[in-house]
Amino acid sequence: MKFEASSAVLLLIDMQQGFCGAQGSSGRRGRDVSVLKPSVESAARLLPVCRAAKIPVIYTRMAFAPDYADGGLLTAELRPGLKKNNDLRADMPDADIMPEIAPLPGDLIINKQRYSAVLRTELEPWLRARGRDCVIVGGVTTGMCVESTVRDLGQRDFKVFVVPEACGDFNADNQKRSLDVFALAFGRVVPEQKMIAAVKTGAADFAIDPRFDW
Fold first, then answer.
1. Maximum distance among all Cα pairs of the chain, rounded to whole angstroms
2. What is the rounded CA–CA span in Å between residue 176 and residue 179?
3. pLDDT tens-digit profile of 16-45?
4. Residue 59 and residue 61: Cα distance in Å, rounded?
5. In Å, what is the CA distance from 169 to each residue of 12, 67, 84, 165, 207?
6. What is the residue extent of each domain of the chain?
């Protein structure tokens, strides 16, 4: 799969206070948000390299309206605790991007109300209108919103390059399983340093993982 910086974007999924911050809703519910810190740090290393190469940066946030009218079945029945606890509201600190990777003017910030960043958002039309078909991906959590997004992008013929260090999950088994699924069927899993080198070079060919070359 050929990577070309001239047709690439960096997509950072849900690296926001609600999931990654100690005072965010996940932290308040007792989750160990420190396990996601390495992924934010990796994203912080990718950002300046991509910016220097003029690669657009896109952030997504899981962010609901104050009344959760846009939450559908997700907040009504699947995860009603989100609404009950006022979690992940667009008008509250939960929606804020982590300061280590703060957006700059001109970056695209997409609010989403479903796990996939493709579903019911402007992401796909924005990419197609600009001829950007190579998507470098990092984000949280790997087994939920990252996986939902990678699957949707891969099946829409976008070239997806997942940086494992820039992805984080509360569950290590979910992390490994999802990365294997990405490598098997939906894109390429490219270590951070190799991805940085490709961005600086401007292009690279990434072979299929030999475990799945059958």
1. 49
2. 5
3. 999 999 999 999 999 999 999 999 999 999
4. 7
5. 14, 28, 24, 11, 26
6. 2-212
